């Protein structure tokens, strides 16, 4: 089966040119101006459109058991929502239950993701430290093809890890050629501030935002960066939402550290004013961690994307219904944290980025796809419109217009935090591994069409001392290195 995309402008992260694209089976066979399509090829007319790599969302939580409930969009509906908006791959967080092994958690996630309609990979969460975790990390990298480990510096009493655990796990990542990820918020300080808010009688969604100020994120980001430096590991800071965190990342990069920052489309476009709403349901819908910030932080995030000190735009898609959000009436600490965005990230970023001149088209491709593929080590299989790459791409109509309305969305919840936003520019056709997954408003992908994508390890930073003893006794290792 072949597809021929004729007459468009191919946009990659590094250049654009007028070219046709021939797809054979699941991959791109050729990109050029002199390709003769086979007689049997389905022709897609891309005149006036851009042909770009499909979006990759490196940060989703589909069917995640979290805060006493389970996120509403599962792998089927989350990936279908993504395809509707031009996203052809998600990377979801595999989070072991307390006491559960990583290996069992991985099997759970593979089971849940069988119904994915688009390709997907996983990150693995490290929520405690032990010899068992040390050993399992090797299997996760070498057998499961997962080269990223997530650490929560917040959610005290649940997922949070302390500095000792961070140090050990980051050092282990460095040995394995894996990269640590951090949710950077100081969970101890957040817990104290939450108590202080409730003691003052502030129990609504605004209390959520007040108890997680930017300083809490800036401190944790700086701490994680320095711990990563001491272990020789690279670092990826998820949902970078504020100036303090961005500046810490930019400083570390200027000093030569491999640190990556990931703003969310939500933090780029929505601000803390949402929590001042008189409408409890609306304010609760916007509860996520980190919370939306004052507008001044948005300028910092856009500047980071423009200058390259921030590399990626994600969603942290973790949707909850109104009824689920209402579990937190009377105590904001119980409002399930999370917002959606998978369906809207690409059109919104195009509109607010390319449409305003803040981003070039190539930069748009970089931050929604190519940079992510490179950072997560699946480039150029993903993230490129190039001969040999997977045929995950989007035929993007810069004139398409859409007003975001929850009543018309694919996501399985009854509201949308971007309700009423108008987008100019959107997918005319989304192609997922060579198949038309979405075209002119019609979703054609089906549950089970997606495949699991393995992501190989990076070359290890250093391979010496890769034993449990060396990791758990860093001072002894340092001492051994001093020769008399
Ligand atoms: N933040 C959220 O808002 N939801 C899921 C997990 C997270 O860290
Ligand atoms: Zn997080
Ligand atoms: Zn609003
Ligand atoms: Zn998350």
Main features:
metal-binding; TIM Barrel; disordered C terminus; 484 residues; Hydantoinase/dihydroPyrase; seven-stranded mixed β-sheet; seven-stranded parallel β-sheet; dihydropyrimidinase activity; binds dihydropyrimidine-2,4(1H,3H)-dione; Dihydropyrimidinase; Metallo-dep_Hydrolases_sf; alpha/beta; binds zinc ion; 20 strands; 33% helix; single chain
What's the short story on this structure?
The protein has 484 residues and is of the alpha/beta class. It has a single domain (51-442, 450-461), classed as TIM Barrel (Alpha-Beta Barrel).
CATH topology: TIM Barrel
What's the CATH C level? Alpha Beta
Number of domain modules: 1
Going by CATH, the architecture would be Alpha-Beta Barrel
CATH H level, superfamily name: Metal-dependent hydrolases
Instruction: Give the biggest sheet.
Output: 7 strands, mixed
Strand order of the largest sheet: 3-2-7-17-18-19-20
* Class per helix and strand makeup: alpha/beta
Strand content: 15-25%
Could you give the distance between the termini? 69 Å
Mean pLDDT: 95
Domain Amidohydrolase-related: 50-436
Cofactor: Zn(2+)
Keywords: Hydrolase, Metal-binding
EC number: 3.5.2.2
Task: Please explain how this structure is put together.
The protein has 484 residues and is of the alpha/beta class. The protein has one domain (51-442, 450-461): Metal-dependent hydrolases (TIM Barrel), CATH 3.20.20.140. Helices cover 33% and strands 21% of the residues. It contains 16 helices and 20 strands. The chain has helices at residues 75-84, 102-112, 131-142, 163-176, 187-199, 205-210, 214-231, 243-254, 265-269, 280-285, 295-307, 322-325, 345-354, 361-375, 468-472, 474-481, and strands at 2-6, 9-11, 16-18, 20-24, 27-32, 42-45, 50-53, 55-60, 65-66, 69-70, 87-94, 119-125, 148-152, 179-183, 235-237, 259-261, 393-403, 422-432, 435-439, 442-443. The strands form 4 sheets. Strands 3-2-7-17-18-19-20 form a 7-stranded mixed sheet. A 7-stranded parallel sheet has the order 8-11-12-13-14-15-16. A hairpin with a 4-residue loop joins β2 and β3. α3 (131-142) packs parallel to α4, α4 (163-176) packs across α7 (214-231) and α7 packs parallel to α8. It is globular, with a radius of gyration of 22 Å. The structure holds dihydropyrimidine-2,4(1H,3H)-dione and zinc ion (3 copies). Dihydropyrimidine-2,4(1H,3H)-dione binds at residues 61, 183, 288-289, 316, 318, 337-338. Keywords: Hydrolase, Metal-binding. Its cofactor is Zn(2+). It holds the Pfam family Amidohydro_1. It comes from Bradyrhizobium ontarionense. InterPro entries: Amidohydro-rel, Hydantoinase/dihydroPyrase, Metal-dep_hydrolase_composite, Metal_Hydrolase, Metallo-dep_Hydrolases_sf.
